[in-house]
């Protein structure tokens, strides 16, 4: 496998508008109920939250716990492998914070 295809696979697991936001709410060993994630990310629809969580679960990044009770209680937490992503994402944040100020293009002088 080439580095390019490896990074493509990694990015595919994390692509999606909300996946990284969801992960940040679960970092640090936090377990969150579905409703807590909904409240923590108010701009996400319930359908999208379910979809993104399912994909993260299928990829082995997030684990889902269903408690047998009425009403149903569903909780999510990062797997050990998912938690190991924290340092990489911290580095990504550090990198983004160091972004140089974009240079403005000079407008041509008006005649």
From TrEMBL:
InterPro entries: HTH_HxlR, WH-like_DNA-bd_sf, WH_DNA-bd_sf
Entry keyword set: DNA-binding, Transcription, Transcription regulation
Pfam family name, one: HxlR
HTH hxlR-type domain boundaries: 4-104
Nucleus listed as a keyword: no
GO terms for MF: DNA binding
Annotated signal peptide: none
The protein, known as: Putative transcriptional regulator
């Amino acid at each position: 496998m080439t580095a390019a295809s490896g990074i493509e696979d990694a990015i595919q697991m994390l692509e999606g508008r909300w996946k990284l936001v969801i992960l940040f709410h679960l970092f640090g060993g936090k377990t969150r109920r579905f409703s807590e994630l909904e409240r923590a990310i108010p701009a996400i629809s319930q359908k999208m939250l379910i979809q993104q969580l399912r994909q993260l679960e299928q990829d082995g990044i997030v684990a889902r716990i269903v408690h047998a009770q009425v009403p149903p209680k569903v909780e999510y937490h990062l797997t050990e492998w998912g938690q190991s992503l924290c340092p990489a994402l911290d580095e990504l944040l550090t990198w983004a914070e160091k972004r140089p100020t974009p240079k403005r293009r000079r407008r041509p002088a008006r005649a």
